[in-house]
């Protein structure tokens, strides 16, 4: 029996480690992902595109 697939933050960590990014970069990416998903009502990022990302980052500007 295979283990269940990793959730998005875990998959991102794996991809970052393959590219030899710093641990701090990995932490930052995962923190942003954890902020982004609830902002979009827990929709998976695969279901979203550029407009949703722009709306997310636009919410931080004044």
Distance between the termini: 50 Å
- How large is the share of residues in beta strands? under 5%
Order of helices and strands: HHH
Number of domains: 1
* Main sheet attributes: strand count, strand direction, barrel closure: none
Q: How confident is the prediction overall: mean pLDDT?
A: 85
Number of strands: 0
Structure annotation, total helices: 3
Question: What is the assembly state of the chains in this entry?
Answer: single chain
Helix/strand-derived category reads: mainly alpha
Helix content: 55-70%
Shape: globular
> Low-confidence spans: pLDDT under 50, at least 5 residues?
none
Radius of gyration from the CA trace? 13 Å
Task: Write a structural description.
This protein has 62 residues and is mainly alpha-helical. The protein has one domain (8-44, 52-58). 60% of the residues lie in helices and 0% in strands. The chain has 3 helices and no strands. It has helices spanning 8-18, 23-39, 50-58. Helix 1 runs antiparallel to helix 2. The longest helix is centred in the middle third of the chain and has 17 residues, at 23-39.
Structure described in brief:
The chain is mostly helical.
Please write out the topology.
Blueprint: H1 8-18, H2 23-39, H3 50-58
Helix pairs in contact: 1-2
Main features:
single chain; 62 residues; mainly alpha; 3 helices
